UniProtKB/TrEMBL annotation:
Residues 211-367 form the U-box domain. Residues 1194-1226, 1273-1293 are annotated as: Disordered. Transmembrane segments: none annotated. Residues 1284-1293 have a biased composition (Gly residues). PANTHER family: VACUOLAR PROTEIN 8. Residues 841-880 form a coiled coil. InterPro entries: ARM-like, ARM-type_fold, ARM_PUB, Vac8. This is U-box domain-containing protein. GO terms for molecular function: protein-membrane adaptor activity. Keywords: Coiled coil, Repeat. Belongs to the beta-catenin family.
Length: 1293
């Protein structure tokens, strides 16, 4: 140390006259400083360093000062000496060095300045010295450096010093405390920018170092933004990059990219930098040049910039950008390939670039090529990044299906993840599974992905899931679970998934673990349970008692829903599982035996999304039970039902997404549940009488109406269901509407037979298409008809439509009946008061009544048909339910397990309840049918045949003449088996077609009882001749029995298993088949056509055939023996209007009494002449055909006997005594039309209900015209009668 003191003295002793001693001392110190040990000692000797500083201050431009600087340079090489040099003696060393730097830039000071700058640069390498040097004497050193930089490169003495000054600035700027202050230091940025703009060759290194200064300054959070706002700074850097690439500017262009890389690192600077003029074009030109080595530095700038989502679309649209990246990814290796792929990854992470990226030529093929490259450390990162690009491209709704269809891609993906997990392929396997997770996200790809490669893809995913214990596979196993979770959210996949027992058992096992595997497993099972209609049996029978596992998860979460974990939690998905499972009828007894409702009970009364799930679960489990604790739980918490109704409302209207500013619908808004969930709850609740009225009052009917409308008209709908594609929701809505159409036993419409119609009128949305119209379209919808699981809802729609139509008919019928009765009462009152209405008023009144009667009649018929059809459906359904009950009873006897017995017993009870409800509805329907049939008879009797009168008015005038004149023979005849013949069921057809002997029965017109019988031979020939007349008799027989008008029974017994309708139909068949033996085929066809066209009034041929048939019949009765037998048994009477009837002797008194209110003349039949009629007698048709297939015979003149006009009785025999020997009264016996009209009216109605053509009613118009014409003539006072179907023709119809 003493030696250093001597040197210090020599350097500072002013008495020393000769500079040689100082020079020697300085040179000696320089040489000594080369020794590493001496360097440390020198740095610690303050007097020596002070002496050296004094030399620099006093003689800076001398060799002595240069040697001193060289000594300091050596001393500053060790890192441990630099801080000492900075701080010793209050910075005397830095002061001396700064003084040297500040000296004129001449040749004398050149070397000393360069060496001094070297010393300062060494010191600035140490982090602790950077800030000290920058802050030294308030920036004195920085000012000196800026001055030196500004001298420029034109001065040869300053070139190296300028470079060293820039290097010193670079080192000082590489400290957190100096970056921003240095950028803000006056003149610093301008000095550096000026270096970038100079073009002399001497400035080459200066540019490179100046850019490094900017690079260090930019490596800060606050300075990049300031740099972007500094005029000329970024543009100067961009111009450096834009220079044509060569070896001389490679370093500067590289450093310029590094500056921009630091600026682009700041998020707020990326878009501004991208928008800087020339920036992006300069970098793209680098990528496009295969020879440009700067691309590996340009790519990080683009990578950072592409992290701004706002610039990605613009980047993609640049014509050369994406092709350059794809080419680099396919042709380059190492960092260039990795960074190119990274930029592609970022650009692909934008909704508007995903699809174009997929469509870009060679994009996917290039990525597949990178992924398929043999894996090693050099290719590892590129493979991972290429998978990340595909991951981003696949993250939209359109590309997944295209990627699945891309040849080779799926194989590439699962070639990656099915490899054995290790450290090298860990990330790549995870990325490939992330791609699969994206591919499984769209609803349209879940089924194709699940089925890919005949299920081998799914098996490979399962293998990854099973290997969750492998340290390198844990994340991959979770991603595999997430992919399966997406695929499970597709009903087509639920059944094959749940049938994979290995898979389900593994999920149940994972439910007993912790963390993500447990959550995902519960999630998957909850989604599989969404298809509980067909997955419930597998889930409930899986190993490990899955129902108990899920209930335990919910139970462990506690009863306070506020303490439950929100969102994607275990308890949420376990509760969802229970709710989904409860939607299957199969699950109901299992869940009720397991006491799921007790678990739900404390949750129902709370207000949250989970409470809604609990309420829905309980609603599904109530299943029509009106006595149990489940019903009590809901009925005492009606607010829970309100929330389900709100959910239905929100889902239909696509609102309540949890983001409402009004604070409503936050917990059970749109998207929480699929639409079918609240609809299924409505269907189940609607089956329970206790909730029907409540649901109707809450507007549920209109919401269900809306759901069916949306489906049928393909409107509305959203991502959770509804609209024209959601068959399940529409079918549930139809089923619920059907249940609501049955009124509760204690509700407003309890005893209302037209309840279905009244409910529609009151609760349906009148602004939408009517419910019946929608149901008709629903039944025809091909999506419903072809649905594997919901096509049965067509029957529900049909039943509901029938119920509404039936209700409408019932309502109309009852109203019409009341109107008829009121009209009758008014007429009777008017008659008593002697009010004689004018003829015109009567006609108008009749017309109005006719319209009402016609509408009511049609409604009665339609109602009866609908009810009979629905009754058949009930019978079929009841047979099925009874069969189910038998199976359940058998299972109950076999089962020994107590829980299983409870489940079967519950199923049995449920089936019995359903059966009882079905029986009740069937009985109710039977009562309505009986009521309708009663109305068919009673109401028409009550209204005196006004309905028939209305139809008669529409008849053709061509029949006007056919009810005047004579009636040659009785009108109603039927043919039965011959005497001594026993008719059997098997022999029915034989008799009708082959019997040689038969009995002809003549029926009384009054009550259609048998009056007299005749044996006939060759019945088939006889039938062919008298076919139309036989049709009249068969139809009258059929209608008389249907309306209970038959006075006696059938003249012969029908065999067991043969009813009257069967006999009559066989008779009609016999009439038609009687024409078949004719050998002339053309004549056969013509005869059959004529016979079957008797209903056509416009066909005169039919009228002629009918008349000819009665001529044949007259010939039959012209035989003397037959004539005597006929006249002994029957009388023919006719009123003064020419109407005639053939009445049995037994019924003659009853007939007269029934017609005593009208003045008529009694006509006594004379024996039928035994002569064949002349040609002129048959030229006029003798019978009138009817629409029902019947024919009415024409009257024949008779001898009139009038008890009130003796003068008219000349040459006329007095009336015969009645059958019982009693005398007839001679009062004004009235031949009324009432009974005849009633008979004809009932017959007509029955004919209509049997499907016979309605032209019958039209065929009677002329009759009415004739009758009314007769009514207009002066006549005796009589009771006002009502025109009916019969007219004077006596029955038929």
């Amino acid at each position: 140390m003493g030696r250093f003191a001597a040197f210090a003295t020599k350097l500072t002793n002013s008495a020393t006259q000769k500079d040689g001693i100082k020079a020697i001392s300085a040179d000696t110190l320089f040489r000594m400083s080369r020794d590493n040990g001496v360097k440390t000692l020198m740095s610690q000797n303050g007097s020596l360093l002070t002496a050296i500083s004094s030399v620099l201050l006093s003689v800076p431009g001398t060799p002595i000062a240069n040697n001193c600087c060289l000594c300091l340079q050596n001393v500053s090489f060790p890192a441990e000496t630099r801080e000492t040099l900075l701080n010793i003696n209050a910075g005397k060393v830095v002061e001396g060095l700064t003084h040297v730097v500040s000296c004129p830039a001449d040749e004398a000071h050149q070397k000393t300045r360069e060496t001094a700058l070297a010393v300062l640069s060494n010191m600035a390498i140490t982090s602790t010295c950077k800030a000290g040097l920058f802050e030294f004497q308030s920036g004195r050193l920085m000012k000196a450096l800026i001055g030196l930089i500004n001298i420029g490169d034109k001065n040869a003495c300053n070139v190296l010093a300028r470079e060293k000054a820039l290097t010193l600035c670079k080192n000082i700027a590489n400290h957190a405390r100096t970056k921003q202050p240095m950028f803000d230091f006056a003149g610093m940025v301008d000095a550096l920018v000026s270096v970038l703009t100079q073009t002399l060759s001497a400035s080459k290194t200066h540019k490179e170092v100046a850019l490094q200064v900017f690079q260090n300054i930019a490596n800060n959070d606050s300075t990049p933004d300031k740099m972007l706002n500094t005029t000329g700074l970024v543009s100067s850097i961009v111009r450096v990059i834009a220079q044509k690439a060569n070896d001389s500017n490679a370093t500067a262009r590289t450093n310029a990219c590094l500056v921009l890389q630091n600026i682009s690192f700041i998020e707020s600077c990326r878009q501004k930098l991208y928008e800087y003029p020339g920036f992006f074009e300069a970098l793209v030109s680098v990528l496009s040049n295969p020879e440009d080595t700067v691309k590996k530095n340009a790519l990080p700038v683009l990578l950072n910039t592409s992290m701004a989502t706002t610039v990605r679309v613009s980047m993609f649209k640049h014509g050369a950008f994406i092709p350059s990246l794809v080419k680099l990814a396919s042709s380059e290796t190492g960092i260039v390939r990795e960074k190119s792929l990274s930029v592609l990854r970022n650009v692909a992470n934008h909704e508007d670039t995903k699809s174009p990226m997929f469509e870009h030529p060679e994009m996917i093929d290039t990525l597949m090529g990178v992924i398929n490259t043999p894996l090693d450390d050099a290719t590892k990162l590129a493979r991972e990044t290429a998978l990340a690009v595909i991951q981003n491209i696949s993250n939209n709704d359109v590309n997944p299906s295209k990627l699945i269809a891309k040849e080779g891609l799926m194989n590439t993906l699962y070639d990656v993840f099915r490899q054995s997990a290790n450290a090298q392929n860990k990330v790549a396997r995870e990325n490939s599974l992330l791609v699969c997770q994206n591919l499984s996200f769209p609803n349209t790809t879940r089924a194709p992905l699940f089925q890919f490669d005949n299920g081998r893809f799914f098996d490979a995913i399962l293998d990854v899931m099973y290997d969750e214990q492998n340290e390198h596979n844990k994340v991959a196993s979770e991603k595999a679970l997430a992919t399966i979770a997406n695929m499970s959210n597709k009903k087509e996949n639920n059944l094959p998934m749940v049938q994979n027992s290995r898979f389900i058992n593994k999920l149940v096992e994972l439910c007993g673990t912790t963390g993500e595997p447990k959550r995902q497993s519960i999630n998957i099972l909850a989604k599989i349970a969404a298809g509980a209609l067909f997955t419930a049996p597998y889930l409930l029978r899986a190993k490990g008692d899955l129902l108990s596992v899920m209930m335990a998860v919910v139970k462990d979460a506690g009863t306070d829903l506020k303490k439950w974990k929100k969102g994607n939690s275990n308890e949420f998905w376990a509760l969802t599982f229970l709710m989904n499972l409860a939607q299957a009828e199969f699950s109901v007894p299992y869940m009720r035996v397991a006491n799921v409702t007790k678990l739900m009970a404390p949750l129902v009364s709370q207000t949250s999304k989970e409470s809604l799930q609990a309420s829905a679960t309980v609603a599904y489990l109530v299943d029509g039970d009106e006595d149990g604790e489940i019903y009590d739980l809901l009925s005492s918490n009606l607010s829970s039902i309100d929330r389900i109704i709100d959910l239905l409302e929100n889902t239909l209207n696509c609102k309540g997404d949890g983001k409402g500013v009004d604070g409503k619908n936050l917990d059970y808004g749109y998207g929480v549940f699929p639409l079918h969930s609240p609809l299924r709850a409505m269907k189940v609740l609607a089956k329970t009488d206790g909730f029907k009225s409540y649901l109707l009052e809450k507007g549920v009917y209109a919401k269900l109406h809306r759901c069916v409308r949306d489906f049928v008209e393909n409107t509305g709908g959203g991502y959770v269901g509804g609209g024209g594609d959601d068959v399940e929701s529409a079918s549930l809505a139809v089923d619920a509407l059907l249940e609501l159409s049955y009124p509760s036993k204690t509700g407003e419409h309890a005893n209302d037979k037209a309840a279905a119609l009244h409910i529609v009128e009151k609760f349906a949305d009148q602004n939408m298409t009517s419910v019946p119209s929608l149901l008709e379209q629903y039944e025809m919808n091909y999506k419903v008809k072809t649905s594997e699981f919901f096509s049965a809802s067509v029957l529900s729609a049909n039943s509901l439509s029938n119920r509404i139509n039936l209700s409408s008919a019932t309502k109309t019928t009852e109203m019409a009946s009341k109107m008829w009765k009121m009209a009758t009462m008014k007429k009777q009152a008017s008659l008593k008061e002697g009010v004689d209405r004018s003829r015109s008023a009567n006609i108008e009144e009749r017309r109005a009544e006719e319209l009402q009667n016609e509408e009511a009649r049609l409604n009665i018929e339609e109602a009866t048909k609908l009810m009979e059809k629905q009754q058949k459906q009930f019978q079929v359904e009841q047979q099925k339910r009874e069969a189910d009950l038998v199976i359940l009873k058998q299972a109950l006897t076999r089962e020994k397990d107590s829980n299983q017995r409870k489940i079967i017993e519950m199923q049995k009870v449920s089936a019995e309840k359903e059966n009882a409800k079905n029986v009740f509805r069937a009985d109710d329907l039977a009562q309505q049918i009986a009521k309708q049939k009663e109305l068919l008879l009673l109401d028409f009797r009550a209204n005196d045949g006004k309905e028939v009168k209305g139809t008669i008015k529409q008849a053709m005038s061509s029949l006007d003449n056919f009810f005047t004149g004579e009636s040659p023979v009785p009108r109603y005849i039927i043919m039965g088996p011959g005497s001594g013949t026993t008719l059997t069921k098997d022999g029915l057809t034989t008799f009708m077609k082959e019997e040689e002997i038969a009995t002809l029965h003549v029926l009384c017109s009054f009550d259609l009882s048998t009056a007299v019988s005749f044996e006939i031979t060759e019945p088939l020939n006889w039938v062919r001749d008298c076919a139309p007349a036989l049709k009249v008799g068969l139809a009258a027989l059929k209608f008389a029995f249907g309306a209970k008008l038959m006075g006696g029974g059938l003249p012969f017994a029908l065999p067991d298993g043969v009813d009257l309708e069967m006999f009559v139909e066989a008779g009609f068949g016999q009439i038609d088949s009687s024409f078949l033996p004719n050998t002339d085929e053309s004549k056969v066809l013509k005869d059959i056509e004529s016979s079957t066209q008797l209903l056509n009034f416009s066909n005169n041929k039919g009228i002629e055939i009918t008349g000819a048939a009665y001529v044949k019949l007259k010939e039959f009765f012209s035989d003397p023996e037959k004539a005597r037998k006929l006249t002994r048994s029957m009388d023919k009477v006719r009123n003064k209007h020419g109407k005639e009837e053939w009445v049995s002797v037994q019924n003659l008194n009853a007939y007269c009494e029934a017609n005593s209110n009208e003045e008529v003349e009694i006509v006594v039949a004379s024996p039928i002449k035994q002569t064949r009629p002349s040609a002129s007698s048959v030229s006029m048709p003798t019978a009138v055909p009817m629409a029902s297939g019947l024919s009415l015979p024409l009257p024949e003149p008779e001898i009139n006997y009038s008890p009130t006009n003796p003068a008219s009785n000349q040459n006329v025999s007095p009336p015969r005594q009645s059958f019982d020997g009693g005398a007839r009264t001679d009062q004004g016996l009235t031949h009324t039309r009432e009974i005849l009209e009633l008979k004809m009216e009932v017959m007509s109605l029955k004919a209509e209900m049997s499907g016979m053509r309605r032209e019958f009613a039209q065929g009677m118009a002329a009759i009415l015209t004739k009758l009314e014409a007769a009514d207009s003539k002066p006549k005796a006072k009589r009771k006002k009668s009502f025109f009916g179907m019969g007219g004077g023709g006596g029955g038929g119809g």
